[in-house]
Amino acid sequence: MSETDVTNADLPADGPEPQVHGQRILLDGVTKRYPGQKAPAVDDITLEIPAGEIVMLVGPSGCGKTTTLKMINRLIEPSEGRILIGDEDVTHKDPDELRRHVGYVIQGAGLFPHLTVAKNIALVPRLLGWDKARIEARVTEMLELVNLEPDQYASRYPRELSGGQQQRVGVARALAADPPVLLMDEPFGAVDPITRQRLQDELLRLQEELRKTIVFVTHDFDEAVKLGDRIAILQVGSAIAQYDTPEAILANPANEFVEGFIGHGAALKQLTLTRVRDVDLHEAAVARVGDDPAQAVAAAEELGREHVIVLDGAGRPLRWLPLRALRRPDALTRVARDENLESVSLASTLNDALDEMLTSSHGVVVVTGRRGRYEGVVRIETVMEAMQGLQSPAHEAGRVTR
Amino acid sequence: MTPAFPVHRQGEKFRYWVIAQGASVSLWEFVQDRWSLLWFQGYQHVSLVIQSLIVATLLALVLACLSYRSSRVTSVALSASSVGLTFPSFALFGLLIAFIPNGVTVSVVALAFYGTLPILRNAVVGLARVDPGLVESARGMGMSRTATLLRLEIPLAWPVIITGIRISAQMLMGIAAIAAYASGPGLGSFIFSGLSRIGGANATNSAWAGTLAIVVLAVLLDLVLNLLGRLTTSRGIRV
């Protein structure tokens, strides 16, 4: 595979399309042999990861996916082959220097327990010798990026955070020095399913802004379908069984191994391919903190709604309030954030939205966009319609291949 | 006739007389009489222990950092430390005197030797217990081996290391008494002079005064080290 992809990292952004900050990664005939083991752990893998895309390495345990990932930042030294990031061969670069420019996120975040959140995020910028003011500004920026209030979280210690929050700090830390490439090794493996779904949404939202090149290892095929621009399904020895877009893999599994890996219900998995942003959102009755409750009630009644979603000053949803709670004149002066408010992001899949709806008492779920701002709501009818629209073509595609 | 001593200080005169005559007094009186000497020897005792402890800590940390990455070297270090602690201290002082003429040097060398062992043991265990995922995370961010050791592993192992230092300090307070045998400094001189003339006037008092002073100072030193440990341990890992 010798095709040379021109990276557009240096080209200016044109139009509304965000600039690609990532760099292409090319694994060229990379092999890893461990002494005393007959079969190589990774056997001659050649893989090109285009700039600004998320590529998922997925496969059964022991297939060498993590080894492949760790060879990119040379936590594991390849025995043979070359690895290029951008146009630079990093196989002979000083490994510490290389790693300072490659973000790395592991399961459980790997935060240093004896350092505050701010100091954790500042680790790589400090290694790179940034000055104090720049580091401080960057830490604040990063915390805002991952939706953690800087005033509230900067001086906390990791053990004072929930698992999901730790993982977000882990991502913020990996992005702090603005590396073009981000390596993620089963980062969301140790959190509960709801938190995992939110973290996945958040990663997709971040990626819309940042356009890094992300290599993501997982054993969860659903996660791969949801997050990946492309998926590389790996067999033992990191042999690539199929490397394609999720749509193409679901519609056209290359062989029995891939079919087995996809598992049953490939058609239903297509629901994972539709994003919330692809369907028409509904308008809910909206009020802001500080608004006049009477006006909010009037507006809601005009729309025929019984609940109003309250937004904070930054346009982020706080909680649903029933109309009767809005009858009090001070109902909108102070509104507490509902920590369990069901919400999905524009990048979430309809599958996620459906999950959230089933736990919500409203039959609707709030959709948030950049920086957690309110965008609209998805209703259960919308998901149903989308499902019906999807089923038929997916079904046909499935039939053609058999 | 004017008395040689003012009447109101007759009791004091009597006490001087008693001491001069070698008659025993109560322990309390004995301590009061020799307060300044006891104070001075106590200061010397603690000073000897603290200085040896600093040497021992540095030595143990260096040895631990050299050995903890290899499990074989680690087990050698651990068994060496167990064997070392069984070495009778009295014998070690005796052997060292044969080579080193200076009593103070002998004391410091012997105490540093004993002090190193518990700290080494705890440091090796503490460093080995650091989550390998964190070390990998540090390396993955581009921290060098040394930076990882200094900024991640030692801070995380620190609570265990400081416990080792406290154990060492307690042990050294006791062993330091034997320094007097090698004509080193410290409260051991009270104990030795008492024990060497047992049955004589104030012999028991002397031994008791030295022993109790060591116990009191050991407790105080432990309090100080405990406080120091809390102050130097990050709030994020304090129990």
From TrEMBL, chain A:
Per UniProt, which keywords does this protein have?
Answer: ATP-binding, CBS domain, Nucleotide-binding, Repeat, Transport
An annotated Gene Ontology molecular function: ATP binding
Domain of life, per lineage: Bacteria
Q: Which Pfam families match?
A: ABC_tran
Which ranges carry the CBS domain?
332-397
Q: Does the keyword Disulfide bond apply?
A: no
Q: Tell me if ATP-binding is a UniProt keyword of this record.
A: yes
Question: PANTHER family this protein is in?
Answer: OSMOPROTECTANT IMPORT ATP-BINDING PROTEIN OSMV
Q: Which family does it belong to?
A: Belongs to the ABC transporter superfamily.
What's the protein called, per UniProt? ABC transporter ATP-binding protein
Native species of this protein? Mumia xiangluensis
